[in-house]
Amino acid sequence: MTRRVVITGLGAVAPGDPGVKAFWQLLTAGRSATRPISFFDPSPFRSRMAAEADFDPAREGLTPQQVRRMDRTAQMAVVAAREAVADAGVDLTARDPGRTGVSIGSACGCTMGLESEYVVVSDAGRKWTVDHEYAMPHIYGYHVPSTLAAEVAWDVGAEGPVSVTSTGCTSGLDAIGHARELILEGSADVVVAGATDAPISPISVACFDAIRATSPENDDPEHASRPFDKRRAGFVLGEGSAVMVLEDLDAARARGAHIYAELRGFAGRANATHMTGLRPDGTEMAEAIRVAMNQARLDPSDIDYINAHGSGTKQNDVHETNAFKRSLGARAYDVPVSSIKSMIGHSLGAIGSLELVACALAIEHNVVPPTANLHVPDPDLDLDYVPLTARDHRVDGVLCVGSGFGGFQSAAVLSRVTS
Amino acid sequence: MIATDTAVFTGMDIIAPTGIGIEDYWSATLAGTAGIRPIERFDASGYPVRLAGEVRGFDESVRVPARLVPQTDRMTQFALAAADGALTDSALDLDTVPEFGRAVVTANSSGGFEFGQRELENLWSRGSEYVGAYQSIAWFYAANTGQVSIRHGFKGNCGVVATEQAGGLDAAGQARRVLRNGAGVVLTGGTDASLCPWGFITQLRTGLLSTRTDPSRAYLPFDADANGFLPGEGGAMLVMEPYGSAAARGARVYGALTGYACGFDPPPGSPRPPVLGRVARRALDDAGIDPAQVDVVFADAAGTPALDRAEAAAIRDLFGRPVPVAAPKAMTGRLYAGGAALDLATALLCLRDQIIPAAAGVTADPRLDIDLVTDASRPAAIHTVLVLARGYGGFNAAAVLSLPGEE
Amino acid sequence: MTTFTMEDLGAVLKDAAGAPETGAWNDDVLDLPFYELGYDSLALLEVSARIGRQFKIAIPDDAVVEMKTPRIAVEYINARITGA
User: Which sequence ranges are marked TM in the entry (chain C) (predicted)?
Assistant: First the structure.
């Protein structure tokens, strides 16, 4: 019997206030959460803005011990996972834990904690042979990104397949795609899947400065993330985590679960061209879309919304616009396409999970979130990018894409489940 | 006979503290040569641990294209070199496999840490404008997969798995999924090189490392004198293909990945038991074989008494008979993302040459009641190998490798 | 007056991004596009950053994009450091 994988619970810690509700309100209001960086003094940097989450781990229910042990990346993932599991209404403790999996994506692991510890043990960069005696006891948990999945697995009680997927900026989509496969192949019945990243730290800001990937237009932080706009100037760094509960359709129905959507197709491809560069034709992303659509057994006409990568670089905007045309043909011109990075910035590996949650909610509410800050359309781009305001729109099928360093291109297809 | 869609290994390359390249590594391993030595890559005199399995004699100017050296960490240089070697070893003509049917799936444990330490130092001691353009692509966990994909034009469903030291097996399991989804070839494996001061001190804090100064008495898995492990660097890359196309092109087949499973331990302090035994059992079920058909077990061999006891118990419970146990890690140290990948490669060489390497210098603790191969390599009839791996935090994975053809 | 030569550029490139793929670094390659010499956008950003630090000049994004060949780069950098 062929399994079908559905989404039955959602959790999010996004820029702005935590929780799925606040996240969806932000998106549908077309409001931006980008602002001047408050975590450290950003004045020496080229790009001094970020989409920060107003996240207090203690207020979200983590114990002082957990707060001390976990980097912010892990804290956000655990909080998002708890929300997703509660939302799904599934009692994981009453099930065989060996049948529960965890799949977490992250591009840069515990960067914040690692950097702050580095500063301590190196005496602010003065020592190469850093001082081990000053390192915090849990530093190894920061050193290995696998900790992020371990913390979630401990918290939800999973003893099945547990892993971190770290494919740069497609990590979120890829981790959830992996979770889907675990259920399809029968390795797990329920997978708590998502992604998390908290990269707003001097070293990350500096490394994107060095390649001029982030926007330097610091005088208007709230409107600095401008995908598909002629005045775009690079991405705005973000942070956050989103987690979803995935399970087999029949099992979800049997327990009377609310089903947001079916995760019908997923595929990843690589451009094998350049670690950061994209060719304008979008061939590889188009191939990923084509394969995901085939798995989903959907036609271009079944896609009602495209959640774009839309990072805010000219290179990306051209690349994915061409990928949509190449894979969906004439339908590409009729489907609303938007980038929520215009509102919540680019949280690297986490963003794909936040985007998939937004896609599930678009199906749930029949609302397409907008591309904020899109005032001056780029004349070279000729699709419907849903400028400024959310749109009431029947959404039964969604395509969500991601593109990242390493040349990775990923595509996921979601659709409404009808009884 | 195995099915035509079974995943088989047709090529590999190894970069290890005991040898670079298959034959150098394998002859050193069979001879029981130790790769654990005083650390030379940085001044470790101020640290409580001063030994490691360093790779000596790796010349990146020969093994890695000049353009890629300044933009990569040592872990990626190992991956690029080993991927080249593995493809050559496989004798696969890549032009016969469509670009979208070639994928790379690697394990990564901690990223390009040495590169990262240099850039952190530039940032904090000199200023943000001193952080180089390559930091953005050199330190992250996807660097190895990305660079290898670009170098060889692998445009398929690429991946990066982080499950600490279980990663090499989980990457192979993921590679097998990618093959099942239609790929024609997958490069898999893992390489690690976290031996810089900043990477090293994070490991010191776990309390799991041996603080001994005598290299021959430091990392002694399953020994009554076990007192922790030592880190190492390096790893292996392997070429995986479906058996049908490998056989059709007359490829040399080292062995098949006939079974794989993974699982996660309950939280620390939980009354529930660790899952290693269950995971091993599921891998055998996946392979469709009984424990009686396993000829040798490659142990995780943690080197700390409690973890060794737990693994020995899992092996005893699963087999209920003395099964030969190999722990070649004793010679190299634990290579993190590279460790289980290297064990896979070593297990394939066991299948090739019908001999089990000894854990040199180790005396098995009789209380553990396992048949650990020590003293000298042991010739044996080997058709099936079970490889076990555990990663920090509770990751467990098991893989079953079998010779194709006869039963 | 400080001047910046083809040789200086070659040295920074080699250190920052490796030797050119064509092997030679001389006047014959002055007008070859950087990408034909095997240097990509990241290499040019790294080289620009290093030169910028050495001569205490800020090289704007547009200028990096416009530096398509060694000749253009050497001329641009000379113009900047000799006082424009």
Answer: none
